[in-house]
Write a structure and sequence with these properties.
The protein is α/β, with parallel strands linked by helices. The chain has one domain: Transcription Regulator spoIIAA (2-Layer Sandwich), CATH 3.30.750. Helices cover about 40% and strands about 30% of the residues. The protein has four helices and five strands. It has a five-stranded mixed sheet. Helix 1 packs parallel to helix 2.
Amino acid sequence: MKIDKRVRDGVTILEVEGKITIGKGDVALREAVLAALGEGAKKLLIGLGRVSTVDSSGVGELVSAFTTVTNRGGKLKLVNLPPKVTDILQITQLITVFETFDNEDEAIASF
């Protein structure tokens, strides 16, 4: 899994590519979120457009990231969810927990 970080209009964007699965994928996401928080980020946007697979561990890591960011006074939102990820979040009813957006401009404007 690969994560590219950039900042746009005060929003830290983590673009995830590959699989968010048990092992390296979930750990990499956790480390990227914690690093962004450590740098003072309060507005995080996770781009999932290039994610091919998310397993239960990956879903758990998304929830953990949301909780960690929220508990530190920040906001975490998701953008460009592929159909597979949307389906998983709907089945688990987590789609109601996350604010999700179809495009980056809309997501950034929502902060």
